[in-house]
Each structure stands twice: as C-alpha cells, then as structure tokens.
Amino acid sequence: MIRSTKAVAALVLGGALLLGGCGIGKAGVPGSGTDPAARCGAGTVSAPKGNPEPVGKPDEPELPVTVRSADGRDVTVRDVRRVLAVNLYGSLAEIVYGLGLGDRLVGRDISTTFPAAQALPLVTGQGHDLSAEGVLKLDPSVVITDKSIGPPEVLDQIRQAGVPVVLVDDRQTLPAIGPHIRAVAGALGVPDAGRRLAARVDGQIEEAAKSASGARLKVAFLYVRGSAGVYLIGGKGAGSDAMIEAIGAADAGSSLGLSGFRPLTSEGLINAAPDVLLVMTAGLKSVGGVSGLLKLPGVAQTPAGLNRRIIDVDDGTLLSFGPRTGETISALAAAVHRTC
Prior knowledge:
Layout: H1 5-12, E1 43-44, E2 65-68, E3 74-77, E4 83-85, H2 91-98, H3 132-136, E5 142-145, H4 152-160, E6 165-167, H5 174-187, H6 191-209, E7 218-225, E8 230-234, H7 240-246, E9 250-251, H8 252-255, E10 261-263, H9 266-272, E11 276-280, H10 281-286, H11 289-293, H12 303-306, E12 310-313, H13 325-336
Parallel strand pairs: 1-12, 4-5, 5-6, 7-9, 7-11, 11-12
Antiparallel strand pairs: 2-3, 7-8, 8-10
C-alpha cells in the first residue's frame, strides 16, 4: 500500500498542534525497564501550541536576489510580498514566520497548523499534492518548497506562469535545520535574519538535549492507522530517530538495522525490546487507544507493553524540523524521562 518513505511520511504528517498533559490509560506496572521512567505508564507530549517566535523586527528584503535551487536551477526572486511556502512537514512556513515575514504568507499546506496560519487557504489535500490552479489563484510572487511535495509537473506549470519556484533541500535531520533556514532566508532577501534564526534554533536544540536524563532508554516510533490497516516502525533516517536520539534515548528501529519506515512485525518488535513506544495521537486513537495498541502483534510482549509505557505526540510537530524543534525536543524529553 505504501510505496515510498515519502508516501509514508505524507500519512504521518498532517495534524494539528500537540495536546498537553499526561496520563492516558492505566498507571505503569512492574516490567523490565532499566530506568524508573520506563515504568511510568502512558503519557502525552506537551509541545509548543503558539506561533513560532520571530527572530526580531523584520528585515527589509534586499531584492532582487538570485539563488541556487535544490534542483540545480538558478532562480531570481524580485518580489516577496506574497509568499507561498509549502512542504510535507509544515516546516517551511514556520521558517518564514520565524524570519519575521509571516504576514507575507498567502497559503498553507496541510501540515502547517500554527495559529496564525489557520485562516490561510489550504493548497494541499491529504496526499500533499499541489494544484497549479489552486496555487496560481493565490497570485504568489514566489513559491518555496522541496521535493517532498509536488508533483514536479505542477511545479513546472507554476514556473511557466512566471512565478519563481525555489526548492530547499528536503533532508529531515537536526543538522539540516540551519541550512534550511538560511536557504529560505536567502531566497527571501533576508540573509541576516536567517543567520540569527539559525543560530537561535541551534542553541535551543543544544540546550534541549541537556534535558535528557536517566538510563539510555530504548524507544520505538510506531506509525499506525487502524482504519487503513497501516502498521509501521521508524528506523534510521525516518526523522523520528533524530528526535529520539536528541533526548538521550536509543532508537529501537535503528537498532534492528531498519531505515526509513518499515512494516511492523511481532518478531522484530519483540527482538527490539523497546522500553517506550512513541506514537502519533491520531494513530493511537485509530487503534482504540492504549488498550487497542496492546492488542497489536508483539506489542504486549515488549517491556513498553508490559508497563503500558506508550507516549503519544500529535501529528504536526514531531517530524516538523524547524524553528520550534528545540521546544519539541524539550517536551519529548520531559514526557519520556518524567518522574512517576
């Protein structure tokens, strides 16, 4: 059913902001976790709910500017009064907002869910495909995107209509956030703001990583959609591995030698023996909550299952690598390493 990692990611993303609080399901029961936090029972990540914080007073864009797009094209941008920044993860619009240019956004993708963007017209559907007609109707002066969204034919149609299209590298890793910010800032003619924002985010991520504590728990990220019969585990390069490792935990999928998203098997999950299971809030609901997740093959036989140590995080933030990633890491660390 799922043909590529990006297709899986399209299903993974597309939600709202993270829900606060903790304490889904019953309290933890004794199990084999080596850290007391592994026996804390279920919980919910309480991540940022507001808008990305602008880096400061908006800089006046220095235009025109010619930049090298990630697809190898040289693109000249002459006007940034109407910006459409869209991708699979919702990170590009957050970057534009963080640069202090949020009032120039004219549309959004389904993963862009921060409050100030809610009233913007939606230009993607569930599959994260763009419509040339829908984009051009917004009369954008520049489109900023990456290869996670498309299809390429639609981007060509937008270019043929005379709208500059700048692609940003689509690696979803912590080290790539700074380059993404600087690339977007360069295309919008505000490179100094880009450098300031990148420095701030790098500092927040570094500080957030310090909040990790306790033994090195093993965490498995499961993407589940019960209604669609989709059950996957994240591995190296899925994006979830970077967030798990940032809080001082070990990614269970990577320990199995998996990359991207792979079908979940009971044997593999039992062998991975995760102390904690991390799932999307909507996914957990789709399988009937904690009790329903425990009925999936192999889940109840893991230390996480024995302890009901299941943590949910809403669909729109965990894999959105952008200005608020540092805050999300801090919230994830607090949920995983919390004291019962």
